[in-house]
Amino acid sequence: MSLSKVKVLFQWYKTSLVIIFLFLLNACQVQSYPEDHEQLSEEERIVIRFSHVVGEETPKGLASRKFAELVEERTDGYVEVQVFPNSFLYKDGEEIEALLAGDVQMLAPSTSKITELVPEWKVIDIPFAFENEEEIHDYLNSSAGKILEDKLVQKGFYPLAFWESGFKQVTNNRNALHYPEDFKGLEFRIMSSDILKEQFSLLGAHAQVETFDQVFPLLEQGVLNAQENTYSNIVSKNIHKVQDHLTVSNHGYLGYLVLINDDFWQSLPDEVQVIILDVMEEVTEWEIKKARELNVQEYEYLQECQCIDIHELSDEEKNTWEETLDPLYERFTEKYGAQYIHYLPRFLNY
Ligand code: LMR
Q1: What are the residue ranges spanned by the domains of the chain?
Q2: Going by C-beta distance under 8 Å and a sequence separation of 6 or more, which residues neighbour residue 171?
Q3: Ligand 1 neighbour 229 (Cβ under 6 A)
Q4: Residue 230 and which of 33, 113, 158, 271 are 20 to 30 A apart at CA?
């Protein structure tokens, strides 16, 4: 074979290799972020299952739907977020396990419910620790908040945001609650955080952990006769229809950790992560406004519906609750150290 023929053959061989390489590269790109998303089957799309326990018209219900719509829109349907509200897929106590097992990819449990895995988060449950939402956000941005966030990452969660529900109020169907002695003998439903159990026991009542879906039936059947929750949860679950008295106490805070399974998060293409983070920032701002608006709206509704007796805790009454509940700070510090307590507003200036 002549030298020129060998050269031509070699050139042809090189060109073919380049073409094959470009073809393979293109195929890989198509697989990681396809162009024509309408044509994709469920297996080819990225599906995020987002489970939660509250109604669709609550701040968390509305925000999770908005998040799903925006993520789908901004990825042209490549990422589909399926939202399962109302404990439809998993109840409290099951959902965190399901997230870690990868059976769902996203959740937004209240901070109280993460305390079984990361007990230091109980700091948020300490009664009267925060006076308004700004204080909560400042706390979460403090060094203590950062340590709490790291603890979530160590357990296999990637925390995406903190959503609000609001301050909790107390309801029961026996008598108005003015002073600690009025709690005597009441049977409360609580979320799974033992600070909440101790809170009611210091006030002279009994409390038991029950899943959110059980609150209405247990109160309706009279198995329990009292509970604490935010206005939007009280009204959306019709709790006001099975309780006679509501005390406006704002004694504790209920907020949500929006969590995604960390292994799943790390497996997502960079461009998808960027879109999710952008959308989450926008939706979080919206959720916070919505939660505050809805609590005002539902409080007004409860005042007008004439369906529940409302008592506003006076400053003097509030002081007696605070004094009674004060030992909780020390108990928390003994168990988990002072580093979390020091950043609470009441200790910041000392
Ligand atoms: C509750 O169980 O009372 C709340 O955590 C429900 C919720 O998610 O707001």
Answers
A1: 41-348
A2: 226, 227, 228, 229, 234, 239, 240, 243, 245, 246, 247, 308
A3: yes
A4: 158
